[in-house]
Amino acid sequence: MPKKKVVDVEPETPFHTFSVDQVAEHYSTNTLEGLTAQEATDRLKIYGINELQGNGGVKWYKVLWRQIANALVVILIIATILSFATKDFAEGGVILFIIIMNAGIGFWQEYNAEQTMEALRNMSSPTAKVIRDETRVTIPNNQAVPGDIMIFEDGDVIGADCRLFEAFNLETDEALLTGESLPAQKNLDLIDHAEQPLGDRLNMVFASTTVVKGRAKRIVTTTGMKTQIGKIATTLMEVDTNEATPLQKRLNRMAYFIFIAAIILVVIVFGVHKFKYSNEVAIYAISVAIAIIPEGLVAVVTLTMAFGVRRMAEVKAIVRRLSSLESLGAVTNICSDK
């Protein structure tokens, strides 16, 4: 009997509510023979490669831009230019040093954290054991497609979301998805409740989790960005990471106030001299404007955050953005089911 045409359509109910036969029928596959090489090739065109889509990796210039893209640093840059323009090289040099030190510390901390997070995102099994043309073969994990019959054993990193149809003393580490520290003991029982929590879908295994005990066979149900870990990745990419923290907002407001105050002082200085321009008056006006700028504030804030990051790193916590520490410090209550 010819197999039905496969299309990339999500079922109305989750796969943990499907029997093994229903999953096999949905993807026109055979639990004994697996897919043919041609079927796998065709499905790869339909479903795409089995990998998480990122934002192109860590961009150093974006990390660097975050260190200088705030109002207070912009004012310091303007102050540096004006200091050099008035030949006050000592003042200009000090402010320039503060800007470079601030950007350097922030860049070093955040870039290292971003690289660590990128390594964690790429942490998956490079290969997968599947049945193709009735033969057990090893393929690149990104070539796995829905309907593939996968085999895994102790220590394997699961490369796709799958419905189990054969399992022997199987336990998986799902802490990455559920936060549970203990391994999940899997079984083949059908689950009727469609809204079953992820950690209780015991007839399923999920991408990026690890087999800690046992062996099993399963049918691949979803790959790539449609897996549970892929949905989390999609959510993270949609989060507006450019939103300023309360501290950043207050610093920006202060920077605008300082800028306006500096302009007013310049006008007052020129007003005292009846708006008659001379080099001496200009230098004095600029010096007065620069004097009200708290050059060390940016460095103090950055150093404080950097020390906080170091302390958190000592307990194995990764902080991607220095400013996130300020948001964390503003938290009053944490609700958890753990």
Describe this structure in words.
This protein is of the alpha+beta class and 338 residues long. The chain folds into 2 domains: 147 residues, Calcium-transporting ATPase, cytoplasmic transduction domain A; 147 residues, no CATH class. It is built from 11 helices and 7 strands. The relative contact order is 0.14. The mean pLDDT is 83.
Element layout with pairings:
Blueprint lengths: L19 H7 L10 H11 L12 H9 L2 H15 L3 H33 L5 E6 L2 E6 L8 E4 L8 E13 L1 H4 L5 E2 L18 E2 L4 E13 L5 H11 L7 H27 L6 H13 L3 H19 L10 H6 L9
Antiparallel strand pairs: 1-2, 1-3, 3-7, 4-5, 4-6, 4-7
Helix pairs in contact: 3-5, 4-5, 5-10, 8-9
Can you describe this structure in just a few lines?
The chain is an alpha+beta fold. It is 46% helix and 14% strand. The protein is built from 11 helices and 7 strands.
Which spans of ≥5 residues are poorly predicted at pLDDT below 50?
Answer: none
**Secondary structure tally: strands:** 7
Q: How many H/I helical runs?
A: 11
Tell me roughly what share of residues is in helical segments: 40-55%
**Oligomeric assembly:** single chain
Derived from helix and strand composition plus strand pairing, the structural class reads alpha+beta
Task: Give the tally of structural domains.
Answer: 2
- The portion of residues forming beta strands comes to 5-15%
First-residue to last-residue Cα separation:
51 Å
CATH H-level name of the largest domain... which superfamily? Calcium-transporting ATPase, cytoplasmic transduction domain A
Describe the sheet with the most strands: 7 strands, antiparallel
The CATH topology label of the largest domain is Calcium-transporting ATPase, cytoplasmic transduction domain A
How does the overall form come out from the CA principal axes?
elongated
Order of helices and strands, N to C?
HHHHHEEEEHEEEHHHHH
